[in-house]
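Is guanosine-5'-diphosphate placement plausible here? Inputs below.
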Amino acid sequence: MALPVVAIVGRPNVGKSSLFNRILGRRRAIVEPEPGVTRDVVEAEAEWAGVRFRLADTGGLFPPSPADELAGAVARKAEAAVAEAAVVLFVVDAQVGLTGADELVADRLRRLCRAVVLVANKADSERARHAAAEFARLGFGEAFAVSALHGLGVGELLDEVARRLAESGSGGIEGGEPAGSPPRVAVVGR
Ligand code: GDP
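Reply from A.M.:
I modeled the complex. Tokens:
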């Protein structure tokens, strides 16, 4: 059974590929570029908390300006990746703050996908982490403040991704159980 796709979207320069690499690097996932997949959507297999998924860096801003054909082609591929995604990581920049381009991406996402996790990247400092609160205005709940550069907050973000995948029954549970089987819950403590 095909693994569920977790797609990373957002306007350029918010740190999508940095987050992609951070997620893969910290789990030592095997990066296997898909043959036939152009470099504007990069995919690799990843795993967190026993849940396996395919991570896709869409690399594209959408919607593009109508005049820019290349951006249009990238945007269509990004849209296709989003449409098949089980979870979308919508990345914004906590240092720059909310921009018009973020609002445009948000509009498209509202139409394309319901399972959106908002990620305020570049929250390297306490100040930037606080500033991330303003992104709640986008309507996707509180942002997960992370720093792809330093690895801060990425574990919490992946816990949420794994939780959503397990909840939707689309996570490839480690150990060969078919996707869709009930999530296993461990209760630990003294
Ligand atoms: P993309 O265009 O959205 O894929 O963004 P990139 O991953 O290429 O990153 C754009 C720029 O932001 C690069 O210069 C990165 O080094 C920088 N960057 C990415 N993540 C962080 C972060 O967590 N903190 C800071 N300070 N810079 C970051």
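Short version: Strands lie at 5-9, 42-48, 51-57, 85-93, 116-121, 144-145, 172-173.
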